[in-house]
Amino acid sequence: LSADATSDSRFETSKSLSDIRIHSLMCVPLIDSDGNSFGTIQIDTVSDRDRFRDEDLDVLLSVATQASIAIDNARLHEYTLRQRAIQRDLEVANQIQRGFLPKQPPQLPGYRFFDYCQPASHVGGDFYDYIPLSDGRVAVIVADVVGHGLAAAMLTAKIAAEVRFHLLSTPEPAEAVTKLNASLARDLVEGHFVTLLVAVLAPDTGEVTIVNAGHMRPILCRGDGPANDIGDEQAGLPLGILDGFEYQQCSVQLPPGGLLLVYTDGINEAMNEAQQLYG
């Protein structure tokens, strides 16, 4: 409150007051529910006879309080509407992303396939696929796109299509992954990459050919022996990091009663309610 702005020492350097010839003014802040100021209300007069008093400031403060509540509520309402729209979009994106996943595992005599995928949020960067190859083999794909949310989900759609194309058009899995990496190294935004595990099963022999692009090592569990990580020496870089990188493959025999486990970091980074890693 300034009853006489022309003689108020607080405004000695304010050229705008003297230019507009403001004689008296009062100003109160607009404050949201968190106590943060988001604006002001100012009333001034150029009449030297109508000076504002403390009673006028009290009235303006009351008005500003009501205005703050109304504006804050309007902003919260607008925010809620935006969040609801985003929520709807995420739910649709989740349905679309789940549409990329296989409807059911392969039905091969003598083999059983199990799969499970639950994103940490509505959408995520993990995906898997089963790809029947022309020679009777079946490729099992597990991949993890760095990051979460819509950006990672959109990239999984691209990866899913390209890995299928390269595996169907290239006889050797390592060569197919090398070609896939060359494509992604050109297209991915800097800082983005993909880890990928390809396991190609020959049903008639039980041989599994594995190509690992920066992914967690698969675990081979034999029915009568210990579990072992597979393919340490042949594991390569994640996809999209280095163009021209040559990937290698290794082969293992899946014994009768054995289990080959392929997973993403959602397993080894899982936490309990106290935010502690399991194991």
Plain-language structure description:
The protein has helices at 15-20, 54-100, 149-169, 173-187, 265-268, and strands spanning 24-31, 37-45, 126-132, 138-145, 194-202, 207-213, 219-221, 227-229, 249-253, 259-261. The mean pLDDT is 83. Helix 2 (54-100) packs parallel to helix 3 (149-169) and helix 3 (149-169) crosses helix 4 (173-187). It folds into two domains: 5-81, no CATH class; 108-268, PPM-type phosphatase domain (Phosphatase 2c, domain 1, 4-Layer Sandwich). It has 279 residues and is of the alpha+beta class. This is PPM-type phosphatase domain-containing protein.
Short descriptors:
single chain; about 280 residues; alpha+beta; Phosphatase 2c, domain 1; 2 domains; five-stranded antiparallel beta sheet; three-stranded antiparallel beta sheet; 5 helices; elongated
Describe this structure in a few short sentences.
One of its GO terms (molecular function) is phosphatase activity. The protein has 279 residues and is α+β, with helices and mostly antiparallel strands.
CATH-scheme architecture of the largest domain:
4-Layer Sandwich
Over all CA atoms, what is the radius of gyration?
32 Å
Secondary-structure-based class equals alpha+beta
Question: What fold name goes in the CATH topology slot of the largest domain?
Answer: Phosphatase 2c, domain 1
Helix content percent band: 25-40%
Low-confidence stretches are none
What general outline do the C-alpha atoms trace?
elongated
Spatial ordering of strands, largest sheet: 3-4-5-6-9
The main β sheet shows up as: 5 strands, antiparallel
CATH evolutionary superfamily of the largest domain: PPM-type phosphatase domain
Helix run count: 5
The ordered string of helix (H) and strand (E) elements is: HEEHEEHHEEEEEEH
Q: Tell me the number of strands.
A: 10
Organism: marine sediment metagenome
Keywords: Hydrolase
Pfam families: GAF, SpoIIE
GO molecular function, one term: phosphatase activity
